Amino acid sequence: MDSEIDSIIQELKADEISTAQNKSIVKIDEKIEDHLTDQNVNEYVYRKSSELVESTLSAVNSLKDTVLTGNDPKEISALSQLINSATKALDQLNKINLQNKQNNNNLQMKKMEIESNSHLSKMNPQTNNIVIATRDEIMERIFDKSGKREKLQIIDTEITK
């Protein structure tokens, strides 16, 4: 009986976080929370999500042995909820990661398109010949038969190779 109590006490001591570590974590969190801006919110979300996932996985590992040895349905339910929440948190982090990668790929593709379009525009000089006229003036010019036109002369020639 004493050995079981000693083993439980040892497990609890192993799961304990020292007060010095806890104070340093709180100080770091206070510093970041005080200076939380739009620029560092992404880092904050990643850090807090990873801490949440780590603590959930740690809780799952510590409860796993207890649940496997016991037959309490409440403990089994608690373990399954912890596993479910850890899975959902990891899934959300993965979605955020994939979305960030997709955004980076889209930005790189746009940059490549802009570079290729600017390169093509340098190769093909564009002409900016603009004629401003009314419809009547254009039609008059198209169908004007009184204007000077060169007459073509056809000459029979021989083609030799």
Written description of the protein model:
The chain has helices at 2-15, 19-34, 41-69, 73-123, 135-142. The termini are far apart. The mean pLDDT is 76. Helix 3 packs antiparallel against helix 4 (73-123). The protein has a domain at 36-123. The protein is an all-alpha fold.
Short description:
The protein is mainly α and 161 residues long. It has five helices and no strands.
Question: How would you summarize the topology of this molecule?
Answer:
Elements: H1 2-15, H2 19-34, H3 41-69, H4 73-123, H5 135-142
Measured between the Cα atoms of the first and last residue, the distance is 117 Å
The rough form would be described as: rod-shaped
Query: Runs with pLDDT <50, length 5+?
Result: none
The number of helices is: 5
What can be said about the biggest beta sheet?
A: none
Write the element-wise H/E pattern from the N-terminal end onward.
HHHHH
Overall residue-averaged pLDDT value? 76
Strand content: under 5%
* Rg value: 39 Å
- What is the helix content? over 70%
Number of strands: 0
Would you tell me the structural class of the helices and strands?
mainly alpha
Sum up the structure in keywords.
single chain; 161 residues; mainly alpha; 0% strand
